[in-house]
Amino acid sequence: MPKSPTLPLIPGGLPLSGVLGFKCGAAYAGLKRPRPGVLDIGVLWAPGGATAAAVFTKNQACAAPVDWSRKVAARGRASAAVMNSGNANACTGPQGERDAAEMAAVAARALGARAAEVFVASTGVIGKPMDMGKVRAGLWEACIDATGAGKAKFERAIMTTDLVQKRAACRVRIGGRTITVAGVTKGSGMIAPNVATMLAYIVTDAAVEPKVLRTALAWCADRSFNCLTVDGQGSTNDSVFLMASGLSGPKITRPAGSAYGKFLAALEAVCRDLARQIARDGEGATKLVNVNVAGAKSDADAREAAKAVAESMLVKCALFGCDPNWGRILSAIGMSRAKLDPTKAKVEVGGVKVYDRKPLAFNPKAAKKALSVKELDLNVDLRLGAGSATFYTCDLTYGYVKINAEYHT
To answer: Catalytic amino acids?
Structure first.
């Protein structure tokens, strides 16, 4: 499939309730430590129903809500998505499965929907039983909020170690009508490819058949969320949900043609921006890093090389220290499955040329200044072919160690 065109994003994104056919609600149930403005239960509601698709973690220790939501996604329709933060409901056995099912049932009763059409997601500490008394009360409150003016609070409810709320949106004209794609996400640490701990909710008012939604989401996730890594640790709960209300635009019934291409471009733009926002907000991170690999034998090789560099703890530490250490970069690629010939490769970090078939002299002070930025490009040209790929990551700081050393206690 050809690469889709780049579309402009709506500055600042949109709340999910800003898309036709969707309403949101949120509440504080006491699953997280109390502090001003904290929320830990969220509800996304499509009063008229929606076609739906989702992609999930490949972690074998997947959480109970993931198993439940896989079944919802397989049916291709959803009326709501409910979630809690503060507890992952992962590795909690049969009771965890019952709790996930009950979350769907409670929301279904409150919203007049079918439990089989309610996505469920959880995020937080692994292995801790859910306090369902608190969850039930919080879900009812959030559902009541959704039927009123819940608006943008949903994206606050999904946050755990995130420092900022993350949302993105894009509009495109299809068949003389304007359709909107909007998404929100949470994620900061425990992030690695294969739906990199993250949750993402994306909605559109386009009319898209379930099979087409699945194809589009899988394609876009592979080029965004699956090109994202903070620490190489995939979560038990990672999920990306996509719901289409169908209240705007013509029906998109097959994964081909002009209408599908425009929808795909809008969806990819949103997914890619959300993935970049997660990398930028990596736990303790000071900079977003775009790892761009070109000249690989194939796109698959380029992806392997970019992933190896983006996940290298040594590279990430060097970037925190504003050190363009090309040796660590080539070493990471050399340990991957990608083909590498050091006598042909070229490396540039933050605009500083450090290696071109051989080491290049550079001014350390000027290099440190060039790397002391909030976003930088790390470019590698392998000069072996036409393959290319980009991964999104961040530097590794003292803050990351502190956050994760204290996460459970």
So the answer is: 197
Tens digit of pLDDT per residue, the chain (409 long)? 344 456 889 999 999 999 999 999 999 999 988 888 889 999 999 999 999 999 998 878 889 999 999 999 999 999 999 999 889 899 999 999 999 999 999 999 999 999 999 999 998 888 999 999 999 999 999 999 998 876 668 888 887 766 678 899 999 999 899 999 999 987 654 444 444 357 899 999 999 999 999 999 999 999 998 888 766 556 678 889 999 999 997 899 999 999 999 999 999 999 999 988 888 876 667 899 999 999 999 999 999 999 999 999 999 999 999 999 999 999 999 999 999 999 999 999 999 999 999 999 999 999 999 999 999 999 999 999 999 999 999 888 776 777 666 655 4
Nearest CA to 155 among 55, 313, 12? 12
> Crossing angle for the helix pair 93-111 and 132-146, nearest 10 degrees?
30
Total residue count of the chain as it appears in this document? 409
Strand duo 288-296 + 375-381: pairing: parallel
Kindly list the structural domains of the chain, giving each domain's residue range(s) and its CATH number in brackets, ordered by start: 16-280 (3.60.70.12), 288-405 (3.10.20.340)
Distance CA 100, CA 63 (A): 9
What burial letters (b/e) apply to 243-261, b meaning 16+ CB within 10 Å? bbbbbbbeebeebeeebbb
Amino acid 389 reads A
Q: Using CB atoms within 10 A of its CB, is residue 43 exposed (0-12), middle (13-18) or buried (19+)?
A: buried
**How far apart are the C-alpha atoms of 204 and 383, rounded to whole Å?**
41
